[in-house]
């Protein structure tokens, strides 16, 4: 499982596997991982956040890539704000 991070927003993102699998994040994307998940699909990740990042919004989506594409899965894209 990988996390995809964007600072731009949610929308029609890039597609892979000849357009079969499309992300729901826009702008520059950062791929983080891979992560091992438990039997319920939960992964843990610690991210150090600088103090000047307060009120910064970022967007994430979890993906599992299974070539050639049709069996790949993704979560809903979510918006989070540092508080």
Give a nutshell description of this structure.
Helices cover 0% and strands 37% of the residues. By secondary structure, it is an all-beta fold. The protein has one domain (2-81).
Key words describing this protein structure:
mainly beta, 5-stranded antiparallel sheet, two-stranded antiparallel ribbon, 83 residues, globular, single chain
What topology does this entry show?
Layout: E1 2-6, E2 9-10, E3 15-16, E4 21-22, E5 25-26, E6 29-32, E7 57-64, E8 73-74, E9 78-81
Antiparallel strand pairs: 1-6, 1-7, 2-5, 3-4, 7-8, 7-9
Q: How many H/I helical runs?
A: 0
Task: List the helices and strands in order.
Answer: EEEEEEEEE
Helix content: under 10%
State the total count of DSSP E strands: 9
Strand content: 35-45%
Q: Report the major sheet.
A: 5 strands, antiparallel
Structural class label: mainly beta
Radius of gyration equals 14 Å
Shape: globular
Low-confidence stretches: none
Number of domains: 1
N- and C-termini, Cα separation: 26 Å
Average of pLDDT: 91
């Amino acid at each position: 499982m990988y996390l995809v991070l964007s600072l731009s927003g949610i929308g029609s993102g890039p597609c892979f596997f000849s357009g079969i699998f499309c992300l729901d994040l826009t702008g520059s994307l950062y791929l983080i991982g891979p992560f091992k998940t438990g039997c319920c699909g939960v992964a843990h990740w610690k991210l150090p956040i600088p103090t000047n990042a307060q009120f910064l919004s970022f967007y994430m989506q979890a993906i599992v890539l299974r070539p050639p594409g049709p069996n790949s899965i993704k979560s809903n894209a979510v918006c989070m704000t540092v508080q």
